[in-house]
Each structure stands twice: as C-alpha cells, then as structure tokens.
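The step that takes the researchers longest sounds almost clerical: writing a folded protein down as plain text. The outcome of that step, for a single protein, is printed below.
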Amino acid sequence: MLTNKPIWQTSLKVIYNISQFVLGFILGISIIAVVAGSAGLYYFARMSSVLPKKPVYEEETAPKTEIVIETPEESLTVSEDIPIFPPEPEPEPEPIEPAIPENAYFAVVTWPQGLSLRAEPTINSARIGGIAYNTKILILEESSDKKWQRVRLLGNQQEGWVKGGNTKKASY
C-alpha cells in the first residue's frame, strides 16, 4: 500500500530512524564500557585488599624455655633464645694471591657489553664464562697472531681466552 506522503516527510522519517539507531548503538557501547570498567575496578580492589595470612613458623609457636639464674641480690630470668655473651667473631683468613707471571699485566674490560671467556683462542671454542664491562682482569699472554688474550679473573682465578683489543692496560 503506497501512501502519498511528501518526500520531506519520508526523508525526515529515515533521518529519525538512523539517528535513533546511532544513539542506541552509542548508548549500548557506553553501558558495556561502564559495566566492564566497574567489574575491572571491583576485581582489582578485591585483589589488592585481600592479603594472604602471615605464615606461622614452628619457632614462633613453640614455647620458649627460660633459665632462672639466682644470685644473692636478686633472681634473673634469661630467655634461651638470647645468648648471655655473644660469641667472638672469627677473624677472616687473608686471601692468598697467586703469583703473577713475569709478562702479565692488569687491564680493564672496555667493551660495553662485556666479553665472552672461551676455553681456546677461537670463536668456535666453548664459552666457559663472561666478564662484565669495566672489570679488572689479569692479562697472562697474547696469541701469536695478537687476536686473542689469555686472561685470569681476579675474583675466582678462572682462566680463559678473550678477543683482543677489548681491554685497556690499567695501572694498579
């Protein structure tokens, strides 16, 4: 059934329907966003406010025994957990420095990423450790082609080979 409505009324009805759809879509997305945000806020608030219980260790729950020392003037109660006289600290042994070879010298690593410590003076050799940037090392010798240096780490006395040109002689 066709009606004889003017075209402006028909186009006004279409614009009204489209605006109704767009407004409904925006309101629906807004409601979904508010609900999701509220749920997320609730979840994070619950997670941050519920803390786990503090663990209880056997030492804390065991009854402490007390020692009673009686003196002529008064009686003194001392807990077993607190020593009456603290033990004397043991002196630390002085580290024994290994002998430094005649042509050896101290150096500092200058390569910013540090160096790989290798078992043999080849790039395909096994990596046995690493040396951090600005670490003090002892250069023991250089390979015949001057591309590799045999080094000793000062902390653990580990020896290996590093690529030459990545160290700077240091005056220590």
